[in-house]
Every structure is written in C-alpha cells, then in structure tokens.
Amino acid sequence: MLSFFACEPKKVAAPPVCDLVGATEQLDQSGRLSTLVERSFTYTGGQLTSVFERNTDRLAGFRLEYNGNRLSRVTDTQNQLTIAFEYALTQASDKPYRATYTRNNQLQTVYSLEYLPTGKLSRLVENRQVVPSTSNIIERTFTFTYDANGNITLERAQDKLRNGSVTTTETEYTQDAQPSPFATVPQPIVLTLVALTQGAETLPGRFWTSGTIMGYTTYSVAANNTRTRRETTTFTSTRDEFKKLTAQEQTSLSYLTSQTNPTTRKTQHTYVYKCQQ
Fold this sequence. Notes:
By secondary structure, the protein is mainly beta. It has a single domain (17-276), classed as Porin (Beta Barrel). Helices cover 4% and strands 59% of the residues. The protein contains 1 helix and 16 strands. The protein has one helix at 188-197; strands at residues 17-29, 32-44, 47-55, 59-67, 70-76, 81-86, 98-103, 106-115, 121-128, 137-146, 152-161, 166-179, 211-221, 227-239, 245-254, 263-276. It has a 16-stranded antiparallel β-barrel. The radius of gyration is 21 Å and the shape is globular. The relative contact order is 0.16. This is YD repeat-containing protein.
C-alpha cells in the first residue's frame, strides 16, 4: 500500500517592524573616512522622543515634548537650544505652521511652514533674526514638489543676502520604489529643523520623500530662469534581506566655472535599525 504525505509549504518569515535609530554620513577620501554628520533617534511607544546630531562643528541632543499628540517643542538643555512649534487656532491638523529657534533665550530664527493635503511639507521660509558670522544669508525659502507617490521631484531654494540680492538653485531628484529610511520616522519636521539650525543640511527635502533617493542634479537659476548645472549625484544602494536600506555610496560631480573637468566627491551613508519581529 502506498501512502502519501502532504508537504506543508515553507512558512516565509514576516518582515520585522523596524525603527531607524542611526544615520551617518562620511566623506570618503581614497578609502579614508571622516564623519560629516551623525544622527541618532529614540522612540517611546512608536513616538519619536529624542534626536541627536553631531557634525564637524556642532554637537546637539534634543528632547521632544508633546501636548497630547501635538509636538510642542524640542530642547537641548545642555546647549540652551529650543525649537518651539505653533499651531493655528482653527487648524485641526497636527502640523505646525510656525516654529521659532532660540539659543540662550535669544531668538535666532523664525520658520514659516506650509503643507500639502497629504501632509508633505510644501514650503519652508527660514527668517534669520541673527545672521551667523560665516554667512551673508538673511532668509532662505524652500519649496518642494512631489509626484503622486509622495516622492520629491523638485526642491527649489532661494537665498536672500544682506545686500538684498537673491540667489536661486533647483534640485531635481530620482527615486526607486523602495521606501526611504527616513519615511517611517515620525515628526520629519523635527529632523528638518534640527538639521537646518545646526547648519548640516542644504537639501531638507530628503527627509520628506517617500522613496529612496537614487540621484539628483542641482542647478543655479539666473534671473531669466536660465539654469546652469552645479552638481550631479548618484547613489549605489545596499539592502538587507528585508530590503531595508543599510548603506549607500554617493558619488557627486561638482561643476565649477573655473574648471574644465568636474570635481569628484564620494560620501558613504550608513543606516542602523532597531527591529521587532
């Protein structure tokens, strides 16, 4: 007598639920790595509770404070830094429309914030009440354009200088279908403003895009809207078995008017997660 045994299909493990807890950018000079920016995040009950950021000039650790489900402020008590958020009285959204940045109780910067119905940041105006000694920029305005999938396609930045002149740049992005490592981090406005206040970010749109950025090109825009290419960047990605982004190698070609050939710069990005099965 022949007997047959049914084979049960092999169970496929469900992907773990993971939070991004670390992100590092390192300049790669012929294999010698030097850290440019290091970020880390902590969570409580799925809520972002702290953001740590270290760059070549500054070190800051911010604690997030909430009023109910609304973010009220983030503070770095050691360095006496505070970013406070304001909400419209008639606004049902949990998105702040204004933020102020203070150092040692002195107002440094006022931010005006606008959003799309999807919740994506569409416009950010940075009005500097105190201009850093190393900068001539008194105001920066960023506008962001997204596709139907929530991927950023265009970031436009206008810098107003002390002498009243304005410079404009545009950055065009490409993404793949895999999620950005920052896509699951709650409160991307905190990542954005911490990076801007600490002087470590010139392309804040990357905190808001849904997909993984695979490349971008930045142009200078003249008053007549003529564009001149400034930089082209591509990324090579490494993912784990669950398709989480763990590393990217960035290659940037900078085009300077005084040079015939572009200057090449390489940067290594690494991402660390804390996962629960």
